[in-house]
Amino acid sequence: MVQGRIYPALFTMEKTSVLSLNNLSKRFGSVLANDAINLTLKQGEVLALLGENGAGKTTLMNMLFGHYVPDSGSIDVADETGKMHPLTLGHPQAALDAGIGMVHQHFTLAENLSSLDNILLGSESLFSWRHKRKKARKKITAIMQRTGLSAPLDEKIGQLSVGERQRVEILKALYHDAKILVLDEPTAVLTPNEADTLFENIAAMTREGLSVIFISHKLHEVLAFSQRIVVLRHGKLVGEIITADANERKIAQMMVGADTPATPRQAMPPGAPVLDLKSLTIKGENTRNSLYDADLCIHSHEIVGIAGVSGNGQSALARVISGLITPNSGSISMNGEKLTRFTPPAMLKAGVGRIPEDRHHDGIIGAMSVSENLIIERLSDSDVQTYGFLKQHNIATHAKELCAAYDVRGPGIESAVRLLSGGNIQKLILARVFESSPHLILANQPTRGLDLGAAGEVARRLLEARRDGAGILLISEDLDEVLALADRVFVIHNGHLTIAHNKDRTTIGLMMAGEKAC
Amino acid sequence: MDILNILISDSFWAASLRIATPLIFGVLGALICERSGVLNLGIEGIFVAGAMAGWMAVWFGAGLWGGLLVAASVGALFGLLHAVLTVPLGLSQHVSGLGITMLATSVSYFAYRTALPNLSSPPRIEPFQPLDIPIISDIPFIGAVLSQQTAMTWLALFLVLLVWWVLERTPLGLAIRAVGDNPDAVDAQGLSVYALRIGAVMAGSALMALGGAFLTMSAFDSFFFGMVNGRGWIAIALVIFASWRPGKALLGALLFGAFDAFQVRLQTEVGAFVPSQIFLMAPYVLSIIALVIVARRAEYPRALLKPWFKGQR
């Protein structure tokens, strides 16, 4: 059965622009998430938007789809005849009408409805007496035949695999006549086979005249499936290259950037082992939460950095050291003693200080006061309580001292912690951790979302702790930070820890993307 | 045995259907609200308000159908209040709902006392009369059961069909089911989460008020305090029993109605040696047992009780 092409008018014009982003900027607080980005998309093209986490890829696409309003700049979209029109910013409906479809990392599907119903949702006038299901099914079947996307239409979403759900999302966009499709990290949740199928489908769609932007940080798929690569770094567009001219080394270099001057740091011989993991295995429900056969030894006076793209097992490593989960096999020793109990209090007692990844969620209790949050890890200490009664005076004095020493600024020690800024919350957590002089400090994404000043403060405190004899495990997605602070660097990928023998950023960049070290 | 005689008598089944009618309205109303993701514990108070407003409108000369319209409007207004508090403002649905129940109950009693002071006995209206439909009343047994029912019972049965059709067969119902499962999905398609939820809660509350109106305009002919007597809460439990489906909601309401009609009849049979409180308790105990059996597999609308705010993902 021969179906008409989706956009015959567009298809006859080779390589005209369908989308142009002009000087788009967006600032969140003190962070410039996107800095004057210019980008054009050609008709029928697969454009890869590449960058590390936090480089501003998702922000840029959210502005395109109207979820965020840009601070400055404009967006033009081509209509059916190829003429460019400015897009109304900040309205998803305007983006939908202009033919922009977006598939988010977190799917927007109702699980209690069938695929067909999810695709139909919002496509009909609400107040009609019945669905036009037959017509819709015909149109969807036609799209499926042309693109090779297949999904069971009558099953409920709750019963479908992640790959099938993603195809339903794409079908939904195509059903709404999208001519520009944005895929936000489409392969992050897919198995390798599902990912291959997806890229075959994308190739079929572009042959039909569709233009695709896909966001990724995986070098090999970008090289294999895109025609052009645009690299974002710290909110700036730092490079653009035709895929045919690119190789892994070149784009890895673009992605992680040129060397930046390192933070001043004294050389220091490592001391005795503090934390020793031996063939530690954690079997999580998926690879994101698993760790396989990890060997890692951290000495005092040493910072060990774990580089890697998030979701490769970092959280499993952090959770086991925080005492939140028990490993399936392998051993953990602290200061030469093998641990048998894996609970948060046992870990605290063994001398672990924790700077959690999500400081708002795991680091503080937002509704409680600054002074209460500062004593939360040592409620049984005698200077905090006697016979179960809190020593209010001691707690207040203690809070004042710590806030002064660590420069925690806010409305006061009796005010709720959630009123503090992100940087001040992090300083409060640092104060709580360093006060107990831990032997090991677990610093999980310690500078994420902080401005430069606060991030510098965190780095300075970590180096101070290293000088004073602590061992530090620094888990970070920011390769610059790892390289600047760490004495030794490990790369984590798919739950496997590999040591990086030299601190060469391109090699590490490749290892982070899952390539074997050169 | 006499119990068997009870079960095959048409008066028993007619009574079951009559007792079930306010519950059918209530369950349907609660079901619509919850399908959109909002629990409406204002139901008990909205029943009282519907009973009072419908009855009073008739007393002041509005006519029976005009009375129903007034009752439904009053219910929708209380629904609007609950929806504004819980949907755009995102307040606790439990607290708001219980508040609505207390408010609606008190306001109804207050309005009754203010409008009709110095009463010795409750004034009566001419209520809905049993509807004799020629062809249906000729059917053996079923005809005898149905011809004892008023127009409101027929309305309730029709609403079961209507609600089912709207939820399962129309784009509006699709959007309501989606908004109760994943509001982000609705938002991503350019539909308004707030408008859908506010509309659903108002429509559901209007039905609850009709359930109350049945008590004063069909089952009885006057309004007195405490007459709703927990029917709203039973409806909330029956929604879970019904797994949020209109057809099963009808079944649940009928089951409860049958328990209640049966205990009244059983009292006259064996009441001499079993305390009457046991019989009064029986329908509730049986409802709890039925709930335990059915509700363990219940699949709640996933977004039920969860406030959603635009622009927060």
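qc> The mean pLDDT of chain B is 91.
qc> done
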